[in-house]
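cron nightly-structures :: item 1 of 1
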Amino acid sequence: MSETLHDLRIAVRSLLHRQSLALGVVLTMGLGIGATTTIFGIVDGVVLKPLPYDDPGQLVVVGEGAESVDPETGLQSLNASSTLNLQALRERARSYALLGALQALDEFVVSEEGAAFEQRVPAARFSEEVFQILGLSPALGRTFVPEEYAPAGPTTGPGASVAMISYGYWQARYGGDPDVIGRPLETGAVADARASSIIVGVIERGFVAPESFFPSGSEPDVILPFPPGSVVREGGMVRVTAQSAFGIGRLRPGTTVAAARIEAERLSPEVAAAAPFRIQGASTPTIGVNGLHDQTVGGAARSLWIFLGAAGLLLLLSILNAATLLLARTMDRGQELGVRTALGAGKGRIVRLLIGEAGLLTFVGAVIGIVLAYGGIEAFLRFAPPDVPRLGTIAVSLRVLGAAVGISVAAGLLMGLLPALRVTARAPWERLQRGARSIAESRSRLRTGLIGGQLGLAMVLLSGAALLFGSFMRVRNADPGFVTEELFTTSGSVGPIQITRTGQASRTTIWEQWDPVLDRISALPGVESVVAASNLPFQAPSWAPRVFLPDDDPETIREGITGYAVTSGFFGAMGTEVRRGRGIEAQDGPDDELVVVVNEAFVRTQLGGRDPLDMVLRRETTGLGTTGEIVAMRVIGVVEDVVQGRAADGVRPAIYIPYRQADMTQLIAWNIALRSTRSLESLRPELDAALAGVSAQPGRDLATMSDRIAATHVTPRFQAMLIGGFAFVAVFLAAMGLYGSLAQSVRWRQKEIGIRMALGADRESVLSLVLKDGLRLALAGLAVGMAVTLASSRVLASQLYEIEPTDPVTLLGVAIVLTLVSVAACLAPARRATSVDPVRVLKSE
C-alpha cells in the first residue's frame, strides 16, 4: 500500500508537468464515458428495467389478427378483440391465472354547474381482473365492487355509474380534497352519452398504466368499470352487448409466452364458433399473445441497441486515442524508466506506475463523463421522438452509475496497459540510451495499430451516420402521392348509434350526420374543397380488410392490405392522380353496384401487374351483426401510391370504397381534409361551429398536412443527428490522434530528417516523406474500417429507407472525407518537419 501511494504521488507530479497531455486524455475519456453512460442509461430505462408490476415477466397482451410475427421483434401484430371473445378464451384457456379486458377512451369533463365541455380527459375501462393483474389499489376510497360491473344500474348506491380518478387528477382538479369521494364526476362520453359518474376512489400515487395501451401523454385520469359482454335471448330476439377491447393477462407459473400463443391459436376456432351471429364459411380470426414488456418496447429496442453499440465504438476510440497519447508520453520517459529499472524497480512496479497514471486520468474523465451523462439524458428526454416508450423511467440510476464505474475501471486498465506492455518489452539498457529512440519507435506496430484502429472506428461511425442521413433525406423528399400545399386536416366522431341486426340503419344515421357537416365546411369562405375518409395519409391505417381475388378460396389470407372509406371526389381534392379508370364519385350510392378503387401497390403485389379494371373482388364485411358476410366489388380505377403511415414504412396495397357503401365500423370516426388559402387560426372558430353536434371537442386536432408530415420525420432525423454527433466526435478524435502521433514522430526523427537535409534532401521530399508516413497509417485504418463496415452492414438495414447499407456512393464519399481529414491532420507535422535546421541537428551530435 505504501508503494502504491508513493507511485500515485509520482503519477500526480508527472502529470502536472504535462498538463496539456493530461487535459487531452481527460477530455477524451470524459467524452467516451459520458456518451456510453448516457446511452446505457436510456437502454436501461427503456429496455432492461422491468415493468412496475409484480412479476412483470408473466404479463401478456391478448388480441386478434396475429397471422404473422415480426422477424425483428418477435411480436405478433395484434388488434382489439371482442369482450365476448375474451370471455370465451378465459373459459377455455389454461395458460392464464387471470385474464381481463381494458379499453382506452376519452371523457369530456364538464363543470359541476353543467357548463359546456370543459376539457378532454383520457380515460379507460378496466374489467374486474385488471385490478388484480396490475396490483392497483386506491390511495383514497375504494375500487369497484362486483355489482358495479353490470351494464347499467341505478343512479346511487350499489350498481351506480361509478369512477375512480388518478392521483394527479385528484390533485390538479380537486386540490387533494379528501371529501371528493361520493361527489359526481360530470362527464359526457361520446360513446355512451353517460351524464355523470360517482367518484368512489383515488388511484394510488405512482401507479403507471400499461404504456402498451396508453402511450405517453394519454395515461388515464378516469377509470370506469368495464362490463362484460352478454348475449340475452328473449323469445325470437337476441340482444348482444359486446365492445372492442384488448386483453391483458397474467400467465400461470411455468407458462411461457410461446406456450400461450400455441394454445390461443388452437382455441381460436372454438372462440369464433361461440360468437353470436357467426356467418357460416366466414374466416376465423386468430388470437395472438405478446409479452407485455416486449409489446411496450416494440421496435425501439433495436434502435437503442444500435445507439449503444455506436457509443461503445466511440468509447473504444477514446481509449485508443488516450492510449496513443500515453504511449508517446511513455516513450519520452524511456530514460527515466530505464533508471528506475537499473535501481531495482521490476516490471511489475513499472506497469503499476503507468497504470496508476492512466487510472488517475480515467477517474477525472469518469467524473466529467458522469456529469455529461446527466446532461445528455436531460437533453434526450427533451428532444427524444414521441414514439420512444417508457421515457418516464429513464434516469441516471445506481445501476447506470455502477456501469459507468465499471466502464471507467476497464478503460483505465486498457489505456494504461498498452503503453506499459510496450515499454517493458524493451531491455533496460535500450531505455538508458538517449539515441535509442529512432525510426523504429515512430513506426512501431502498436502505434500503427492504435492510429489505424481510431481511423477504422471513425470510418464505421461516419458510414453509419452518412447512411442514416441519406435515409432521412430520402424520407423527407419522398413523394407523398398528393398535394400538401394549403391542405388542412381535422377529425370528429358521431354521437350514439342505434345498432341493428344488419347495420343498415346505423350507416344511414351516420350519413345523415356527416353530409350536412361537410356541406357546412365547404360553404366556409376561402375553403376550396373538403373531403373525408376513415383515415388520411400519414396516419396509421385502422382498417385491414380481408380481400379475395376472383380465384381465391374462402380460406385465403392476404396480409398487409389496408382499406379506406372515402367521400366522393376524394382523389381530386387531395391531388392524387387516378392512373386508370375513375375515382369515387357521388353516383356510387348505397343502392348502386358496389365498387372499389385500388392503388398501384395492390396491382403490383396482389395482381402481379395484371389489369384490374372491371375485375370483381370480394371482401369480408366488419361490424356487429355483419361480420363474415362476403360482398362483391367491381374495380373501377387505379390511383397512384399514397404514403399511409410513414414514408419510411413503405406503401402497402390499399383499397378505397365509397363511404356510402362502407361498413358501420369504418364510419363512426372520420378524418376531414380541406383546402383553403386561409390561416390555421382563422379557420378554427368557423370549423368548430361547422362540426358542432357531431364532435364533443370539434377541431381540437386541426393542423396543416405539412405539420403532420413533419411529425413523421422526427424519429429518422433524431437517429441521424445522434449517430452524426458520435461520428463527428469520432472523426475529430481520430484526426487529433493522427496529428499528435505524427507530430511526436517528427520530433523523434529530427536527427534523421536533419541528416537527410544535410545530404541534399529538399523541403518537398521531406514533406512527402512525412505525409507518406501519415497517410500509410490512415489508409491502413480506413481499409480495416471499410471491411468492418461491410461486415456489419446488416445491423443498420432495418433503419434505412431506399438506401442499401453497402451503398457504394456513400461509402466512397465517407472514405474520401476521412482521407482529406487525414491529409489535413498530417500537414502541420509535415510542415514542421521541413523547418528542421540540419546545422543545429549536426552540432547537437
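cron nightly-structures :: done
Residues 504 and 741 are 81 Å apart (CA to CA).
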